[in-house]
Specification:
By secondary structure, the chain is an all-alpha fold. Helices cover 65% and strands 1% of the residues. The longest helix has 38 residues. The model has no long low-confidence stretch (mean pLDDT 85). The structure holds zinc ion. Zinc ion (ZN) binds next to helix 7.
């Protein structure tokens, strides 16, 4: 599989570049706080689909970056997600889809999953309110720290990482405009989609278009032609792809500077403008 840092950095690039594009084309811009928080949420969510890599729960071993985020707890969750995904695979496979014993790179690696999880979060934000928002932020920001600061996490272990994630979540939650989280679900969904595109460029590909039958298979694995596909975790990814993505993240962030400038000028304007006559 593609490395965690590559997925997370692509998530950040996608959100920043997308935000710039939406501002330019549609004139809608996020506040600087929203931009920072949702970029991190998208980066973290770009690890989420790999919550289907099971490990050895009781030995606290194995699993992908996402599965190790909260130690044994998330390893157990990954075990459940993997089994559930395998169940969905076995129920919906055609005769041409290979038999499998493991659910990795199945349901959580489909467009349907990305849309469902994004829509579900958007729907639940209203009725479940702030505790739910806090929970989603905590989970995805912990993933973002795991992905973007992989070496720091390796050094300090999951307990300190979890504490740091909690602190970051409190700051992020305070920074977001209260009562309004229109982009939370979108950021998670986009992150998942970015993960799938990352997997798609490797030799394995992923069943992005499930359950649409292609060549008689509902779990048809979409990938690049053999020559173009990248070896996951290989030299190209480490030497070219990750540095290039990191560079792009900075470029995309710089693109956002006008947003910050606009915000500052609107602040100074509201200070400068005299109160209207008669009010
Ligand atoms: Zn994956």
């Amino acid at each position: 599989m593609v490395m965690g840092p590559t997925h997370a950095t692509s998530g950040a690039v996608a959100w920043l570049a997308g935000a710039g594009l939406v501002t330019t084309v549609a004139g809608y811009s996020q506040s600087p706080a929203e931009l920072a928080v949702y970029t991190a949420v998208c980066a973290g969510s770009a690890l989420l689909p790999d919550l289907d890599v099971s490990g050895r729960v009781f030995r606290n071993r194995g699993g992908a970056t996402a599965a190790r985020t909260f130690g044994v707890v998330s390893l157990f969750l990954a075990e459940c997600v993997e089994k559930l995904s395998l169940g969905i695979y076995l129920l919906t496979r055609t005769k041409k889809d290979p038999r499998r014993r493991n659910g990795h790179r199945t349901f959580t690696h489909t467009l349907v999953f990305a849309i469902l999880i994004g829509a579900l979060i958007s729907l639940l934000v209203g009725p479940l309110g702030k505790p739910f928002v806090f929970g989603v932020l905590f989970f995805t920001l912990a993933l973002a720290i795991r992905g973007l600061l992989a070496e720091w996490v390796a050094k300090h272990g999951w307990l300190i990482t979890t504490a740091a994630s909690a602190a970051v979540t409190v700051i992020a939650f305070a920074g977001l405009p209260a009562e309004s989280y229109p982009l939370l679900g979108v950021a998670v969904g986009v992150g998942c989609l970015v993960h799938m595109l990352g997997d798609l460029i490797t030799h394995h590909g992923c069943p992005l278009l499930w359950p649409i039958p292609i060549a008689g298979r509902t779990w048809y694995s979409v990938t690049l032609p053999g020559d173009l596909a990248v070896t996951a975790g290989g030299k190209f990814e480490r030497v070219v792809l990750l540095p290039a993505l990191t560079f792009l993240a900075f470029v995309a962030a710089a693109w956002q500077v006008p947003v910050i400038q606009e915000w500052l000028s609107s602040l100074t304007q509201s200070f400068d403008s005299p109160p209207e006559a008669g009010s």
